[in-house]
Amino acid sequence: MNESTPLDRPFSSSSAHAGGLLTVDLGAVADNWRHMAALMGAKEAAGVVKANAYGLGVEAVGRVLAAAGCRTFFVAVPEEGVQLRKVVPGAVIYVLSGPIGSSEGLAPFLKSNLRPILNCADQVALWRSHAPGAAPYGLHLETGMNRLGLPEFEARAMATNLAPSLVISHLACADVPNHPLTEEQLRAFTELRSLYPTARASLANSAGVMLGRDYHFDLARPGLALYGGNPLPHLPNPLAQVLTLQLRVLQVRRVDTPQSVGYGATYRAPAGTVLATVAAGYADGLLRSLGNSGWGLLGGVRVPVAGRVSMDLITFDVSEAPSQAVYSGALITLIGRETADSTEQAHTLDELATEAGTIPYELLTSLSRRYARRYVGGAGS
Amino acid sequence: MNESTPLDRPFSSSSAHAGGLLTVDLGAVADNWRHMAALMGAKEAAGVVKANAYGLGVEAVGRVLAAAGCRTFFVAVPEEGVQLRKVVPGAVIYVLSGPIGSSEGLAPFLKSNLRPILNCADQVALWRSHAPGAAPYGLHLETGMNRLGLPEFEARAMATNLAPSLVISHLACADVPNHPLTEEQLRAFTELRSLYPTARASLANSAGVMLGRDYHFDLARPGLALYGGNPLPHLPNPLAQVLTLQLRVLQVRRVDTPQSVGYGATYRAPAGTVLATVAAGYADGLLRSLGNSGWGLLGGVRVPVAGRVSMDLITFDVSEAPSQAVYSGALITLIGRETADSTEQAHTLDELATEAGTIPYELLTSLSRRYARRYVGGAGS
């Protein structure tokens, strides 16, 4: 399916002037999906592309997953489904939030052939009163997350009247080793899904897939793993890194006398320090918590963040970097490798999230629209 | 200037189904700008609308500020300037990052009549070799932030050859009471700006305006204050609140037996607890740090966040809210008032930022595109 869409494209001409470059390796996304699909054996792996494919671009990611063989997708809200439908005309798309509000809220589902996940009795009633009888839908069964989903008594009461195409539940603690709730949820889901014998069943997120066959059921819903995050953080990451994030140096300065740097004057630079300020900040999703603790790679050397992260700017202390690498226009690498043949790599996605005091999901979804985005690799790579 | 553009518009028809509603009071933005302009007396107040007007929409905010009398704008990067130019055809627009890269990087400046702030000798050289001689530009003089700007020796060396329309510098600690660096920067800027007698001078951000006339020079650059943030957090906030943020309840559930809630099972709900899950999460800019500590207003009662913030969902413990207010489709208010005539208000912008462990700037810029956005109030309100 290589020929269908040109997935390799160079940076746009304006990217030479962009403050940040985000390279998304779609080949790695496809490889990661295939890795999860292989773990599923004869069962199916879907692709979770909610929140604009965790911030990486739902259209590009949707296309490459479909080309790799993914036939079922999950998004959070109907608007995302409408956007995805344009690039995966033949796939099944489930919308996790279900329809919100009145019967008007059903329009995007019917128009773009989206299947809602019905999460509560209200949504079930809304769908059954206004959607055509044959329109397929999924049903969310609550098993311990206590967020959305039909509680057990409703799941039992409604079973004889409903014929969903899919029943799902969410694991709350699949990434925590031996958390007792995980087995409890497995037991509860196994029992509840048997009330809907004609429906396919789906319980596992990325971490759930790793937990083994008991958790696989008919369909898994990997998300984080597709984007290179480690589903089980206490074990080595089996997935390929997808992202390279590089920030453009706007200006280099040598400090002649001891100086403070940035808002709040929190960093003290001794005389002789060389500082480089890049054109990206927390408005670009680089969390403020990286201030005075983060680092990047420049010319193969780790350069620390100097002072606070500003809205549009971050300053690095580049004194230790080789001078040939230090110039205005250079790129400091925060995630991934500096060049394709670099041996050392800057942070992985998980490492940078840890450094920022959060989880890879939040870091991913906060990555900004202001970066020049480059997609490399394609379905066949 | 009321008639020029319709600034009051109702929620779009789809907003009844949106997971979150962000109401931006443009009348309050205009009032806040006028407040800052009044403090400046005969001197000028610009409008800082970088990072998409701190996330609130550069076009809507640009229009209303221009209608209120704002004639000078600051953005971070040229792309933002190109977008702003469409709605403020006659205004002066400065781009704080200056031109990046090669001479190609100058194109948007010339095409959209944007004035770069030149931050270093390289940018000065680039501009002077490729821009028409008469094209106006600003010059950034470094006085203690050590982020961008010409150091003193360069500022002196270049003074005889340059005729900028504006010289600027940034205060690093203006919001910290009596920080010694603030006065040092004032002294340094006063001296350096005298090297450029034909240029207008600008030092103050929102906090700087509050510090009094010594800091005003010709032009101030308020940003945060326009959006209702408190420039001097140790004093009462003189600005009007701009935002109301409300999240749609997807589902209400009563817990029959003690249960845990959400990822990691970090919240224990006793039997009888009523939980409401809303359709917004950290992918919508509601920082994960609000998990198990934030709260919203529902029916006039404070309802706490139950468990972790998920990517697309947050659960609240609504047991204490009046039952008439608790239904699927209800709105939980996180910032601002529940209705126009509510006496109690949920968080101010600053309060919610503090609760999330960050500053209002980061919270503002992380607010999401997935909200249905409603603009109320206009230039004349």
Automatic annotation (TrEMBL), chains A, B:
Catalytic residues in the record: K50, Y263
Keywords: Isomerase, Pyridoxal phosphate
PROSITE patterns assigned to the protein according to its UniProt record, in alphabetical order: ALANINE_RACEMASE (PS00395)
Gene3D superfamilies with a match to the protein in the record: Alanine racemase, Lyase, Ornithine Decarboxylase, Chain A, domain 1
GO cellular component labels: cytosol
Annotated metabolic or biological route of this protein: Amino-acid biosynthesis; D-alanine biosynthesis; D-alanine from L-alanine: step 1/1
Domain of life: Bacteria
N6-(pyridoxal phosphate)lysine: residues bearing it: K50
GO molecular function, one term: alanine racemase activity
EC number in record: 5.1.1.1
Keyword Isomerase: yes
Matches recorded under SMART domains: Ala_racemase_C
InterPro entries per the UniProt record, alphabetical: Ala_racemase (IPR000821), Ala_racemase/Decarboxylase_C (IPR009006), Ala_racemase_C (IPR011079), Ala_racemase_N (IPR001608), Ala_racemase_pyridoxalP-BS (IPR020622), PLP-binding_barrel (IPR029066)
Broad class of enzyme this protein falls into: isomerase
Names of required cofactors: pyridoxal 5'-phosphate
Residue positions binding substrate: R147, M311
Signal peptide: none
Catalytic activity from the UniProt record: L-alanine = D-alanine
Domain Alanine racemase C-terminal: 242-376
Family note: Belongs to the alanine racemase family.
Function recorded in the entry: Catalyzes the interconversion of L-alanine and D-alanine. May also act on other amino acids.
NCBIfam families with a match to the protein in the record: alr
PANTHER family: ALANINE RACEMASE, ALANINE RACEMASE, CATABOLIC-RELATED
Protein name: Alanine racemase
Organism for this UniProt entry: Insolitispirillum peregrinum
